[in-house]
Amino acid sequence: MNSDANKTIFSSYNKNVQLFDEVFDSNGVAKNVYQKLLELYGNHSIQDYVQLNNKAKASFFNQGITFQVYDNKMTQEKIFPFDLFPRIIDEGEWEIIEKGAIQRSKALNLFLWDIYHDKKIIKDGIVPLDLISSSANYLHQMIGVDPPGGIYNHISGTDIIKHSDGNYYVLEDNIRCPSGVSYVICNRTALKRALFGVFNHYKTHSVTNYAENLLEILESVKPKGVDIPNCVVLTPGMHNSAFYEHSYLAKAMGVELVEGRDLFVENDFVYMKTIRGPIKVDVIYRRVDDLFIDPLEFKPESALGVPGLFAAYRKGNICLANAPGTGVADDKAIYTYMPQIIKYYLDETPILNNVHTYHCSRPDELNYVLEHIHELVIKPVDEAGGYGISIGNRLTKNEIKVVQQEIKQNPRKYIAQPIMSLSVHPTYIDDSESFEQRHIDLRTFTLLGNEKEFVLKGGLSRVALKRGNLIVNSSQGGGSKDTWVLKK
Amino acid sequence: MSFEYSITYIADNEYENPVENASWQFLIVPENNDTQELIRVDINNSLGVKNEFSENGYGFRTIRINTQENFQKLNFKATFILKKINHNPFREVPVFNIPSNYELVQSLGFRVDFEPFLGQSKFTTLPQSSNNLFVLDPTQSIFDNLQKLNLWVYRFIKFTTGVTHVNTLLDEIIENPKGVCQDFTHLFCALARSNRIPARYVSGYLHQGNGYFGDSQMHAWAEAYVPQMGWVGFDPTNNLLADDNHIKVAHGKDFNDCSPLKGVVYSRGANKTSHSVEVRSQQ
User: Fold this and answer.
1) CB contact, 8 Å: A205 with chain B?
2) Domain layout of chain A by residue ranges
3) Which residue in chain A has the smallest CA separation from B26?
4) Would you call B23 and A132 a contact, using CB atoms and an 8 Å cutoff?
5) Which residue of A347, B227, B237, B270 pairs with B184 in a disulfide if CB–CB is 3.0 to 4.6 A?
6) How buried is A2 (Cβ within 10 angstroms: 0-12 exposed, 13-18 middle, 19+ buried)?
7) Domains of chain B: which residue ranges?
């Protein structure tokens, strides 16, 4: 035996006590739920992990589970790096997350109904009018429209982190077709293939029931007068970064995957072209952005949409999930009002914390932000995927000046938050061939239907693979972990 | 008292190469309101496909045509018979409570309710330096002020065809004040809104006297919300209040919401489009 074989998988684990470690407490002792897992993993050598890790990677690539990263000049196809060490959330912690996620989804739905109908929350002075009127995602065409079943945000992706104080905080609510759920399922499959034995020692909730619940949710919001609704998944096409997910969800639900050109509208009903003639469609899980769904109503140059689709929607003949105009509520400036929104509609206190947020649109807060950029995270309110984020303590003096200029020019576009210290989790690192601490977050998936709700027991734990990096988005080079929620 | 109009709308589209797949949406049907009632509609298209009635995103009637057959020419003709009630907008002017009218338009509830018609849309955004081009006189009624604005816009822009196009922004109009009804209306709306008066873009037909055909197009004017009166039509191109010569089709935030013809056409090469409108009164 050489010395390398004796090296354990945790021998070079760099415990930084400043950070909140999900597995080890401050004395370096593994937390209860992880003890069995560490024992089992300890039976393997580093070489085993190198091998397993390579196999897992190949399996992802061979299945075509890839995504594309957009750049100014080119797009790149990548696999989503997968980590062999799962994250475990016990039933007590999970209960808080689940209740908190449902609470937020319901509050957001009520908020959306209100701002497209009576707008009471604005008239009562809780949310400023300007936040709505200046939002590019507020669709005037949706004013007075009742979505089938009264639901706007059928699918919400809530991004949650654990701060160094050990509490969960919500970073953002994604309700414009959030993606990532297919990776949750792929991660589970990959881990079962690589290390199936470890599942025998834990009672972990399944994640494969997501698709059947999604289908039930979609069927629950069928248009009036439809008995058995015909649901489809509408994708922008194979060049979209999340195409794998669109095809997975359609397959797993047993429904058709369509592009805009496969559908047409006649007399305000939507039909799908098939070799056996047109078939009526009742519910569309659309993964096409609002402004591209109907070239006759929104962007005329859109080739992704269906001419007349919005007219069919206004008539109540088709349900779109999520509803058009939902994006106004995941504007990051609206996020900051979530505690008030929850209180206003549900008369409850938020179960999950919000991160304190400074609005650059408010003059006094703008001044604070401009003077404290070095200790804040600056985020554009309307960009997704981690684009445009500046982390103050990583900026040079010149970069700070540039950011200050940008904020001053367009204060409404930016919010700022204290730099949150995301918790860390042991993560297998290729270069060092060992486990190291890496920052993680958690995207949960909440479904809201007509008298039905569901939170996927699991989620996407995203990992920032670069040491010290805080941005976990896949488009910014993040990886992910299988996430176990334990049964009672 | 009422009388009848006969309105004919013709659109001819010609494509260099065969079109395989196309959808058009016409926003040309006069709406029914307090002063007008649609009696008859006749529509013909040369493709022999169905003319489908539907609604746009703001609830105004549209006609949609879809075709999957190859074609190079589309001739479309619609005729509307409309009953118009005689009305003189000046006869309906109340005695204004001026201070309470201004108080109302400043109130949060009012600004929330009229939010879509108070903001700056793409075509009603003024260059920053021009926001104070026209400022209301608070000692006079909102109605009187808007009439002054109507005259101001009428004098500011010189009616000239061929200078502007459907995508002209107000920046260009401020710099070179020449344009057509669409530009007059956008400027009126922008200045009313910058004074916190809700204003909307109206698309419709204008009766200019019998015997006009061909050179007459669809017309645009504005409606502004006047407390104690409701929505009042202002035609800044002609320095008029909208009266029984104005036949309304639709309104919206700006031209984008009211475009008479939108199409999605899959074809290569050039195309030629011509529209003509005739409005006849049959008293």
Assistant:
1) no
2) 20-135+156-205+332-352+436-488, 356-418
3) A296
4) no
5) B237
6) exposed
7) 2-85+259-282, 92-258
d(CA A257, CA A235) in angstroms, rounded, equals 7
> How many C-beta atoms lie closer than 10 Å to residue A177's C-beta?
21
d(CA B35, CA A328): 37
What pLDDT does residue A1 have? Answer: 36
Give the number of beta-carbon pairs within 8 Å between A and B.
67
Yes or no: say if A440 and A423 are a contact pair by the CB < 8 Å rule: yes
- Mean pLDDT for A286-309 is 93
Neighbours of A433 (CB within 10 A): 16
DSSP alpha helix (H) spans, B117-180: 142-156, 170-175
Query: Per the structure block, which two tokens stand in for A187?
Result: 């991660």
Q: Which CATH number fits domain B92-258: 3.20.20.140, 3.20.20.70, 4.10.800.10, 3.10.620.30?
A: 3.10.620.30
SS3 of residue A87 by DSSP: strand
- Say whether A299 sits in a helix, a strand or coil: coil
Residues contacting A425, CB < 8 A, separation 6+: A21, A22, A23, A85, A87, A437, A438, A440, A461, A463, A481
Q: Which of A296, A302, A317 to mutate to test the interface with B (most CBs of B within 10 A)?
A: A296
Q: What size, in residues, is chain B?
A: 283
The Cα–Cα gap between A291 and B89 comes to 39
SS3 percent helix, strand, coil of chain B, rounded to 5, is: 25, 40, 35
User: Rounded distance, CA A244 to CA A138, Å?
Assistant: 29
The C-alpha atoms of residue A457 and residue A485 are separated, in whole angstroms, by 6
**Tens-place pLDDT, residues B239-249:** 999 999 999 99
Q: Which two tokens stand for residue A375?
A: 């200790």
The verdict on A308 touching B (C-beta cutoff 8 Å) is: yes
By residue count, chain A amounts to 488
The ipTM of this complex is 0.94
Please provide the CATH number assigned to the domain covering A356-418: 3.30.1490.270
CATH code reported for the domain at B2-85+259-282? 2.60.40.2250
Residue A19 Ramachandran class (φ > 0 left, ψ -120 to 50 alpha, else beta): beta
pLDDT higher for B76 or A379?
B76
B-chain residues near A297 (CB < 8 A):
56-57
Q: Is the pLDDT of residue B155 over 50?
A: yes
